[in-house]
Structure formats: C-alpha cells, structure tokens
Specification:
Blueprint lengths: L3 E6 L1 H19 L5 E7 L3 H10 L4 E8 L15 E3 L9 E9 L3 H11 L5 E9 L12 E5 L5 E2 L15 E5 L3
Parallel strand pairs: 2-3, 2-5, 5-6, 6-7
Antiparallel strand pairs: 1-9, 3-4, 8-9
Helix pairs in contact: 1-2
The protein binds inosinic acid (IMP) and magnesium ion.
Magnesium ion binds next to strand 5.
Length: 177
C-alpha cells in the first residue's frame, strides 16, 4: 500500500519564505564580507540551493554530514556522529549553518558546539522547519522558515527512507497502516 501524503506547505509559500529569509540574511550580513554557508546533508540540499541563489551576500558553500536520524529507542537517542566534515578551515570566517529541520535539536546543538570550537568570526543558524513540540535541546535559531506540528514531513529535500526528497512541496506523510 502507498504512503499518504498531504501538502503542508506548497511551492509558492516555500519560495516566498525563502526569499524573505534571504533578504533578512542580506540585511544582517551587509558589509561583513563573505559568509560560509554550511549545508547539513542530505536534507538541506534543496533549501540551500534555493536560499543561496537568492542571496546577494557573497558566500561559499560547504557541506557537512552527521549520522542519520537518531534511534528514538536507543540508549542515547541524542547521539550524533560526524560523517563528513567541511573541506576548509572556518576559523575567522562568518559561518551560517543551513538545516532542513530542527526536531529534538540534538543535531543542530552538536553542530554549533563542533563548529564554535573552530573559532569562526561568527556562527549563526538557519533552518527551514522546526517542530517546537519535539524540542528537547534548546538551540538558538537565527533564521527560521516555518514552525510545523509534530508530523513526519517529506519533500523539498526531506525524506522517508530516502524517498520523496525531490518533491517540490512539503508534505505530511503517513505510512500505510
Ligand atoms: P534532531 O537532531 O532531532 O533535531 O533531528 C534533526 C534531523 O532529523 C533533521 O536534520 C532531519 O534529517 C531528521 N528529521 C527530523 N524530523 C524529520 C521529518 O519530519 N522528516 C524528515 N527528516 C526529519
Ligand atoms: Mg537535517
């Protein structure tokens, strides 16, 4: 049986919000020189591509990857492992982490700790989505696209078992009963 997909955020609304976020970032980084955008693989690749192309701020693109979604049943559900690091030293650079979604907050908290230890000139965070009902680790989000309810979402980079990443809209997904 097929998964049930219900549109939560349509293409136009995403595009509009991404443009607003880019404008906000441009305002905040005006006159600061280059910013290093670090996309968190894999989920952020679509958002990062759209956001970066809307930015007027000069920027470089880097990617980082962490262990995929933690095991809710494991002894240490917040454990996050670095799978792929950035290619360049970020020391002294302005850094903006670009995430697809903040769920418990463990992943973003881990990345902020990891990257802050490398002494960037500044470190900020941007996420397209957040599930406020599921937050367990408080991590500052400087740029937020949308708050969403506690449902599994796919599309616009987000997956369920590697499927649906290239859907152009964000959908709530229910697996077959
Ligand atoms: P956190 O560490 O619990 O905040 O989880 C963050 C990561 O879990 C995100 O970067 C996603 O990769 C994944 N994730 C959380 N919720 C969803 C969802 O609804 N759909 C797809 N991926 C999700
Ligand atoms: Mg992610």
């Amino acid at each position: 049986m097929a998964d049930t997909l219900t549109t939560l955020i349509g293409e136009d609304l995403i595009a509009e919000r991404v443009q607003e976020l880019a404008a906000e970032i441009d305002r905040d980084y005006a006159g600061m020189g280059e910013v290093v955008l670090i996309g968190v693989l894999k989920g952020s690749f679509v958002f990062l591509a759209d956001l970066a192309r809307r930015l007027e701020t000069p920027h470089r693109i880097e990617f980082i990857a962490v262990s995929s979604y933690g095991d809710r049943e494991s002894k240490d559900p917040g454990a996050v492992r670095l799978m792929l690091d950035v290619r360049h030293d970020i020391g002294g650079h302005h850094v903006l982490i670009v995430e697809d979604i903040v769920d418990t907050g463990h992943t973003l908290a881990y990345l902020v700790r990891l990257l802050n230890a490398r002494r960037p000139a500044s470190l900020r965070t941007c996420t397209l989505l957040r599930k406020p009902d599921r937050t367990v680790v408080d991590v500052p989000i400087d740029y937020l696209g949308f708050d969403i309810p506690d449902v599994w979402v796919v599309g616009y980079g987000l997956d369920f078992a590697e499927r649906y990443r290239t859907l152009p809209r964000i959908c709530a997904m229910k697996p077959p009963e």
